Amino acid sequence: MLNIKEKLLELLPRKSVGFLGVDLGSYSIKIAEVGEHRGKIELKSFGQTRTFENTLIKHEIVDKNLLATNIKNLIDNLKPSTINAIYSLPSLLTFYDNFTLTEIPDHETLIQKISDECPYNFDEISYSYYILPVESKFVVFYLYVKKEILNKFVELFSFLNLNLVNVDSNFVVIHNFLEHLYGEHAKLVADLGYYDIRLIITNKEVPIATYHLSNLGIRRLEQEISKVFKVDKHQALKMIHNPKPSEIQIAKPLFVKYLEKLSEEILIKLDAVKNKYGIIPEVFYLIGGGARIPNISQILAQALEIPYQKIEIQQKIKINDNIHPDYLEIINTQGVLALATAVKELL
Fold it and tell me: Considering just the CA atoms, what is the radius of gyration of the chain in Å?
């Protein structure tokens, strides 16, 4: 479990065991509420809504008031029993790297080393780090974000009267959550979002690398389908997730072309990680809206030559009775980041 020495935001005293995990995406907003039930983590509620236009651009806040209204509408609908919130920063807004030392460093040495590697003044960033012993050396993984960016999210949660108890990076909470579900192993996580694709590659202990494929989001496939079938983007998205038998034959070449390009780009990143770190994922996971494309897991498993592991949160997470079983497919794909964020303080 990645247990960072410093937190991007200091944890405030915990008053209850309930938390809201907030996922603010440029396409949609998701919130998961968790608590504890007889010693087990319980998913109490989950909701999502479309993100208002021009509130977030490249994951940065553009219009705080409009975004706050967007989030408040979702919270009012969920009616959660807690105001304790946790947020995971998009990896695009953070910087993550590592360096190797021959002996265990003291805190001052680490700070100086991170400061030397950082292009900003040290008082302009919030940071965290993790020390991993490897044979006779020590690999220090460090993460930082500009305070200017972080403070915008802190102000947003304060404006919403939410008690922001912790902030982390999205790839860290996903790694820790999957480790909780399935144990330690090297893995690839492909987050198939609307605007872009995010790849997370880990060894058994920590995330090793993250990549963004900004031109391969599901929107690319949506636009091709809209053009060929002459439908609007909402109908095109429905066809992506649940094509009718009469549409499959015409749409198939579009799906094949898209998935071939996606596989090609993923293989390039996997090869880079293998050459630099000697890491080959044992399994891969799919999250995000694109994970619901029919047969995508089988197609990618064959192309990548890596076994696919379907995420089933119900194996370790108690599901509240007010959540319909059919909705779990959406939570197990599109809701993973919100849930992984919510459970951070309970793992």
Answer: 20
Q: Name all domains of the chain by residue range, CATH numbers in brackets.
A: 19-215+268-346 (3.30.420.380)
Coil, helix or strand at residue 204: coil
- Terminus-to-terminus CA distance in the chain, angstroms? 9
pLDDT at site 9:
54
Tabulate helix, strand, coil % of the chain (nearest 5). 40, 30, 30
User: How high does pLDDT run on average in the chain?
Assistant: 93
pLDDT digits (tens, 9 = 90+) for 42-62: 999 999 999 999 999 889 999
Distance CA 347, CA 35 (A): 12
95 contacts 143 by C-beta, under 8 angstroms: yes
Distance, in Å, from the CA atom of 201 to the CA atom of 281, rounded to the nearest integer, reads 7
Q: How much is the average pLDDT of 327-335?
A: 95
DSSP 292: G
| Burial track 69-82 (b if 16+ CB lie within 10 A, e otherwise) | ebbeebbeebebeb
Q: What pLDDT is stored for residue 7 in this prediction?
A: 53
Sequence-separated (6 or more) residues with CB below 8 Å from residue 279? 186, 201, 202, 203, 208, 273
What is the value of pTM for the model shown?
0.92
Query: In whole angstroms, what is the distance from residue 61 CA to residue 257 CA?
Result: 34
Give the residue with greater pLDDT, 36 vs 11. Answer: 36
Q: What is the spatial distance between Cα 172 and Cα 176, in angstroms, rounded to a whole number?
A: 6
